[in-house]
Amino acid sequence: xxxxxxxxxxSVKVEKIDLQHKKLVEMINELYESMxxxxxxxxxxxxxxxxxxxxxxHFKTEEEFMQKTNFPGYASHKIEHEKFVKKALEIKERLDKxxxxxxxxxxxxxxxxxxxxxxNTDKKYSEHFNSHGIK
Length: 135
Known about the structure:
Elements: H1 15-36, H2 41-68, H3 74-98, H4 104-131
């Protein structure tokens, strides 16, 4: 069961980043499925940790391309990444310490953040990267 469906609207026209975005969508769907199927909390935590680690890896890729091409929106984009990581770590901490299971509120945050970030923030660098040979 998909919680987010990848569509071509999400493409930023950079193959490496599109593949990473697809992986993040896949991980959110996996997390949603584990919550919906009421799987053990430890599994939800493991999936959540993998997703946070992968998001960090993905953010580093984007930021590397931004620095390499002198993308003018680098500073504000990096701040968005930092805010996401902070929120994701807060969620992870709540899961670890308080024994909470995932809720639709957490899933909706992940879904809306990813959709907004790709469709609004990431789209801003698409043409810039392409014009610098990053496709």
